[in-house]
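Box S1 | Example of a co-folding query
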Amino acid sequence: MDRMRRFRKNEAIRSMVRENHIRVDELIYPIFVIEGENICNPVASMPGICQYSIDRLHEELDRVCNAGILAILLFGIPAHKDETGSSAYNENGVVNQAIRYIRKNYDSLVIIADVCLCEYTSHGHCGLVKNGKILNDETLPLLARAAVSYAKAGADIVAPSDMMDKRVAAIREALDQEGFTEVPVMSYSAKFASCYYSPFRDAAGSAPGFGDRKTYQMDPANGREALREVEQDIFEGADFIIAKPALGYMDVIKDISLHYNIPIVAYNVSGEYSMIKAAAIQGWIDEKKAVMENMVGLKRAGAKMIITYHALDVAKWIKEAE
Ligand code: PBG
Ligand code: ZN
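Box S1 (continued) | Returned holo structure for zinc ion
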């Protein structure tokens, strides 16, 4: 009989046999950019997270760079919403302006632009709406248009989060046609209809005005179906696969990593962040230990990169441990 405790005798041995690590260059930090001036609005349900106007974005971007984080994921909150989400693809929309500003002033940052309509539509859905239904094929050209406008503004990667069928193909084709063959698509492939997005919907002002997202986002009960979503997106030309939420869906991340040879990005979502923050504020949990345990758990499951609101703290803790 083997004695497994031989591996655990002291920290040096534990560190030699440690199978997974999280590195700063694997972290992606989400940022909310709001139209307007001199704004730094704390998001009540996400302690530590704010919406920034472009003129104050440098406060957050300086923290990102000082932490050694290489990549950010941008979400826009427009002043103007309409039926077709036109601020998502208007070249003077808030995200396009933010991308140009960041490209100019923080050139080395990897800019990932979230592509969706829900922050920009008056009804708050991720696609066009007609008679209470979320239209699929009619939405595709708008998503493609948004992706191309972000690439033109200087985004490095586009990340469609809408869950319309065939959007990766539509976006890939539009990017290629406009000469952006080198802009990768990071697709939210396995995105579940989760209650853990609710703090984000406060942050992005994107809660659906009627109904829910269950006709386009996945049923939380389905793991095998997630593999078909991934297969479809790879077939359509996705370069990276996002799985989301992360913590309750580690089995999905594991399954994807066993089936496909493509970088997997785990999205540690807003509700997962807020739960830890809430417990830490109460003194019920050690924030650093809980977060780092979750991070390494996602690596163990098979994630290559992690999108997380904890990124600034995680980067700091990684550096402290070095
Ligand atoms: C928009 C989008 C959402 C998230 C990322 N992109 C919300 C949603 O689908 O309602 C959630 C992120 C989070 O909770 O942190 N399509
Ligand atoms: Zn959306």
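The pocket of zinc ion (ligand 2) is lined by residues 116, 118, 126, 161-162 (CB under 6 Å). The CA atoms of residues 54 and 98 lie 6 Å apart.
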